[in-house]
Amino acid sequence: MLKKSVYLPGLALRQLRDDPARAPRLAVRMLARATPGRPGARLARSRLAVPRPRVVTRENAELRALLAHDPPVPQTPPAGAGAAAPAGGPARKASPADGAVLQFVTNALPNTNAGYTVRTHRIALALRAQGRDVHVATRLGYPLSQGVGDARPRVDVDGVAYHRLLPWLPPADPVRAIERGADLAERIVDEVRPAVLHAVSNHHNAAVALELRRRRGLPVVYEVRGFLEDSWLSRDPSHRETDEFYRLTRELETRRMAEADAVVTLGEAMRAEIASRGVPAEKIFTVPNGVDEAFLEPLPDASGLRAELGIAPDAFVAGLTSSFFGYEGIDTLIDAAALLRDRGTPVTLLLVGDGPERGALERRAAGHGVHAVFTGRVPMRSVRRHHALLDVFAVPRRADRVCQLVTPLKPIEAMAGGIPVIASDVKALREIVEPGVTGTLTVPEDPEAWADHLEELAYSPERRRKIGQAAREWVRAERTWGAVASGYRAAYAFGARAAADDSPFSR
């Protein structure tokens, strides 16, 4: 409690120092948290509660500082080089093939429920089932940095240990933040004694792991789950690839990939992109998204939820579970539903999730007279109840660069439940949808094309059943977490060999 009461005011002061114009929006978010019930929820979704982006000149200055930072190579071998050991103590011979793993992530369960955190958790559980001792450390300051007043140093979820790196005050500069993160993480290294450090997007997490490699001689595997600069590019039409933020972020991410001993990513489109940046192909490993085997079980009865949400028993329901960002293309799905209504084929949209575009999407649906049910975020345990309401799962992603490259998790969960998927025809989605067999692909950002395919599926229940069944069998054979997690074994072993070969103390 004491650390929370010191850190949160310090964070607010730093934000205001960075940009005083952020004060009104910060005040609205704090008021929303303090207001109970629906009024607080409505306030949290208002435009005034959306955080004001940091001043880009300050962002760019921090990126330049990180790129300029080049810590010296230790003059003496790190404590326990090649295996983690307490400072001054004997090194434990931990094999990367079966030793402990310490992951570094941006956010995590139980405070953040998103595709990123679900993958982290399911991979940790799958590796534990294979005999690995897996620990996870969240980014410096989290979750206090998100305004969540939970200052526990460790939280266990389903037996997975989530460690928090919580300083008393947020560091004043990005280089100091990396060093402070490594300082706090060293205590976990002493406790866990990992054989490998597994950093997950973005470059901040990789930098902390690499600093620990410098200090302790541990191999670093960097898992690239997305491209930060392309996500930024897709969120505002005024953003350009020539902008300094884009160029600096891309350069920094690429440097972290090159510095890591091995790189893991989610799909072949992402693997090709990483290799095109000069990262040796032999050190890039693909570990795709998967699902827990519970998703393969028959969907639960959701008749009560259908009535609760006001969805008619005979309604044709299309929808998704997603974070509501512009590049998800949910506006295209709403426009397609409006076209179907005009054709006399009404469709109910079930839109599960939240994000900065939610308010605009609600207004769009209301303006078009589309019956759209917005549920907000739901707990993981409720996802399959919502899946049970769907006749079709939609992935209407735009043709943006980030959508071409990054393969999402949510449609695979739906496919495991036997729900037919209709998705935008972009490279990343071609990796999980075989047209006419495990799903349907259509033109991105084209409401009429979407309406045509939705209408075809609406009147073809037997085709929906066959596609859904084929999708479930594909997931069962290739995309459970237990099946995909085995791919880390090769990445960890490669990373350990590379770290040993590159160490100045092994020559």
Quick overview of this protein structure:
The protein is α/β, with parallel strands linked by helices.
What is the topology?
Blueprint: H1 2-18, H2 23-34, H3 37-45, H4 56-68, E1 101-105, H5 115-129, E2 134-138, E3 154-157, E4 160-163, H6 174-192, E5 196-200, H7 203-216, E6 220-224, H8 228-234, H9 244-259, E7 262-265, H10 268-276, E8 284-286, H11 303-308, E9 317-323, H12 330-343, E10 348-354, H13 358-368, E11 372-376, H14 383-387, E12 392-395, H15 401-405, H16 410-416, E13 421-424, H17 427-430, E14 440-442, H18 447-458, H19 461-478, H20 481-485, H21 487-502
Parallel strand pairs: 1-2, 1-5, 2-4, 5-6, 6-7, 7-8, 9-10, 9-12, 10-11, 12-13, 13-14
Antiparallel strand pairs: 3-4
- Number of structurally distinct domains: 3
Largest sheet: 8 strands, mixed
Strand content: 5-15%
- Overall geometry: globular
What's the average pLDDT?
90
Please state how the strands of the largest beta sheet are arranged side by side.
3-4-2-1-5-6-7-8
CATH class of the largest domain: Alpha Beta
In CATH terms, the superfamily of the largest domain is Glycogen Phosphorylase B
By DSSP, the count of extended strands is 14
Low-confidence stretches: 81-93
Q: Which architecture of the largest domain would the CATH scheme give at its second level?
A: 3-Layer(aba) Sandwich
Assembly annotation: single chain
In DSSP terms, counting alpha (H) and pi (I) runs of 4 or more, how many helices? 21
Rg (C-alpha, Å): 23 Å
The CATH topology label of the largest domain is Rossmann fold
> Distance N terminus to C terminus?
49 Å
